[in-house]
Amino acid sequence: xxxxxxxxxxxxxxxxxxxxxxxxxxxxxxxxxxxxxxxxxxxxxxxxxxxxxxxxxxxxxxxxxxxxxxxxxxxxxxxxxxxxxxxxxxxxxxxxxxxxxxxxxxxxxxxxxxxxxxxxxxxxxxxxxxxxxxxxxxxxxxxxxxxxxxxxxxxxxxxxxxxxxxxxxxxxxxxxxxxxxxxxxxxxxxxxxxxxxxxxxxxxxx
Length: 206
Hints:
Blueprint: H1 3-8, H2 10-25, H3 32-41, E1 47-51, H4 59-65, E2 69-74, H5 77-86, E3 91-94, E4 106-111, H6 120-132, E5 134-144, E6 149-155, E7 158-164, H7 167-176, E8 179-188, E9 194-201
Parallel strand pairs: 1-2, 1-4, 2-3, 4-5
Antiparallel strand pairs: 5-9, 6-7, 8-9
C-alpha cells in the first residue's frame, strides 16, 4: 500500500477506532507544560481553533478549564460525538483540517498530534490555513516529527501514517507566513518525546 493511500486512510482509522483510542489515550495530561506555554501567549477568554481536536479530552478540556472558547475541527464524526457530549457549549465541526474555512480569526491555533498525519505537501499548504485563521498576536502550536521523512506506526492493527519536514523548512514556512518561533523542542523528554513548535503571529501575511 502506498504512503499516499495510507495518509488518506487516517480519517477512516480514527472513525473506526475513535472511542477505543480515546479510552487508550486516557486523561493524563502529559502535554500540560506545553499547553501552559500556549496559554501564556493567549489573552484572557481566548478563542482557540483546535485542528484535529478528536474527542476534546484531555487537551481541549484543559483549554476550556482555563477560560478558552474552543472551536474544534475533526473529520471523525465518532470523535466529535464524544466532544459534543462532553462540551456541548463549545463548537465542534466535521471538516477536513486542510480545507476548513471560517470567517472568524482566532487568538490561538492548535494542531496537536494531527498535523503530523498529513503528507509533506499538505503540511506545506497548512501554513496558509494557519495564517488565514490567526489574529495578529495569535499563538500557534503544533507537533511534528524531528526530521524530514515519512514513518508508518500502528494503531489497533492498522498502519498509521506520519510525516515531517525538517526543522529548517518549518522555520522558513513560519517566517513566510508571519510567525515568529517562541519555543521549539525536538523529541521533548518531558512530553513523551514529542517534537513541539510554539509560534506567535507577528505580521499580517495574506
